[in-house]
Design goal:
This protein is of the alpha+beta class. 25% of the residues lie in helices and 28% in strands. It is built from ten helices and 20 strands. The strands form four sheets. Strands 1-8-7-6-2-3-5-9 form an eight-stranded mixed sheet, sandwiched between helices. Strands 11-19-20-16-17-18-15-14 form an eight-stranded mixed sheet. β14 and β15 form a beta hairpin. The longest helix has 13 residues. The radius of gyration is 23 Å and the shape is elongated.
Length: 334
C-alpha cells in the first residue's frame, strides 16, 4: 500500500488523468470550482461523481454547475439521497481494458481536500466495485426532476458545508435557548406516563439554573448533527463548547425520555464526540415531539431553530427533550 500525503492533486489527479480515460469518485463533499478545474485541464477525462453528504445541502451555484456538466456530458454527478449518508473518499481511474488505479483516504474531491488541507490517500489493489455499487444504488442524478424535493438546494450566501463550517462549529456554545419554565399543574405525570413527575420537573429546573445542560442543534450550517444506523442513533457534539463538562467522553449513562422510558447511551467512541443511543431512533423521537409525520424531510429550512436538549439530573442520568428558539419549553414537552 502506497501512502500519498503531499501534493495530492499533482500526485493523484495529474499523474493518472493523462493515462486513463475515466475517473469515478465517491466523496462526502465537492465543489464546482474543483470539478471545473479538472474538466478544463483534462477535457477528455470522463468523470462520474457521487456526492455522499448531499442530504446536508448543495449550494445553488454548485447544483446549477453539476446539472450543466451532466447534461453536456462533461461529467455525471449523482447525489446520495438515502441514509446512511456516505462520508467515504474513494477515487478510481480506469480504462476499457479493465486497467485500474484506485485510492481511498481522507481527501474530499475539492480544493480543500486536494490542494489546501493536510490529507492522506492510499493507493489500493482491492476491487472498489462494491463501494461504487452501493453509492449508485443510493443516489439520484443531479438532473432528476424530483431532486430538489429531496436534497436541500441552499442559497450560496448562507451555504456552508462540513469543510467550510468547521470554524463556526467551534464558536457555537449550544447554551442559547431559554431557561426551562416548568409545566402547568395539569401537565404533571398522567396515568399513561406522558409527562414527567412534579419532582423531576423541579430537578430539571434546578439543573437548568445551574447550567447543567447542553442544547445540540438538529441542523447547523446545513449539517445534520444526528444520524440513525440500524437500531441505534448518534448525536454529534462537535459544535458544543466544553460539552465534556456535561457529557464526559468514554462514559456510559441512562437517558430518560417521554413516557418514562429510559434508554442506554454512551460516548465510547473517538474522542467521545458522539453520543450513541442504543435501540433508539432519535429521528422518530424528534418527529413525535414536534408532532410531524416521520416521513417529513429534515433540513436546514424546517429544523434550523430546533435543538435537542440533554439535562444532567444526577451522575450518569439525563433527561432528553427538544427546545425551539423563541418558544417556551413547556409548549414543546420533553
Amino acid at each position: 500500500m502506497t501512502l500519498i500525503v503531499n501534493e495530492l492533486y499533482d500526485n493523484i489527479i495529474r499523474v493518472n488523468a493523462s493515462d486513463f480515460p475515466n475517473l469515478r469518485v465517491i466523496t462526502g463533499y465537492s465543489s464546482r470550482d474543483f470539478v471545473k478545474k479538472i474538466i478544463t485541464e483534462f477535457p477528455e477525462l470522463k468523470i462520474e461523481l457521487y456526492i455522499g453528504m448531499a442530504l446536508q445541502g448543495i449550494s445553488e451555484k454548485d447544483h446549477v454547475f453539476y446539472q450543466k456538466a451532466t447534461k453536456s456530458g462533461k461529467a455525471v454527478v449523482r447525489y446520495v439521497v438515502k441514509k446512511p449518508m456516505i462520508h467515504q473518499k474513494v477515487l478510481e481511474f480506469y480504462d476499457d481494458d479493465d486497467d485500474r488505479c484506485g485510492y481511498i483516504g481522507s481527501a474530499n474531491f475539492s480544493d480543500g481536500g486536494f490542494c489546501n488541507q493536510r490529507e492522506v490517500m492510499a493507493m489500493v489493489d482491492n476491487s472498489l466495485d462494491y463501494l461504487f455499487d452501493c453509492a449508485d444504488a443510493s443516489s439520484f442524478l443531479c438532473i432528476d426532476s424530483e431532486i430538489d424535493k429531496i436534497v436541500p438546494i441552499v442559497d450560496d450566501e448562507t451555504f456552508q458545508n462540513d469543510e467550510s463550517a468547521s470554524n463556526d462549529f467551534q464558536n457555537y456554545s449550544g447554551l442559547k435557548a431559554k431557561p426551562f419554565s416548568g409545566y402547568k399543574e395539569s401537565e404533571n405525570i398522567s396515568e399513561d406516563g406522558n409527562h414527567y413527575s412534579k419532582s423531576l420537573e423541579s430537578d430539571i429546573e434546578l439543573s437548568i439554573a445551574k447550567g447543567q445542560y447542553i442544547d445540540v442543534p438538529v441542523f447547523f450550517n446545513n449539517r445534520s448533527f444526528f444520524s440513525v444506523s440500524g437500531c441505534d442513533s448518534s448525536l454529534s457534539l462537535d459544535c458544543i463548547k466544553e460539552y465534556s463538562k456535561i457529557v464526559p467522553g468514554h462514559s456510559e449513562f441512562e437517558v430518560e425520555i417521554r413516557n418514562g422510558r429510559t434508554i442506554l447511551a454512551d460516548t465510547n467512541n473517538s474522542f467521545g464526540k458522539y453520543i450513541i443511543f442504543h435501540d433508539f431512533n432519535i429521528r422518530n423521537y424528534i418527529a413525535e415531539l414536534l408532532e410531524i409525520d416521520s416521513d417529513v424531510a429534515f433540513n436546514t429550512k424546517n429544523m434550523c431553530d430546533i435543538k435537542i436538549e440533554l439535562v444532567l439530573i444526577k451522575d450518569n442520568h439525563y433527561v432528553m427533550g427538544i427546545v425551539k428558539d423563541g418558544i417556551e419549553r413547556r409548549e414543546l414537552t420533553f
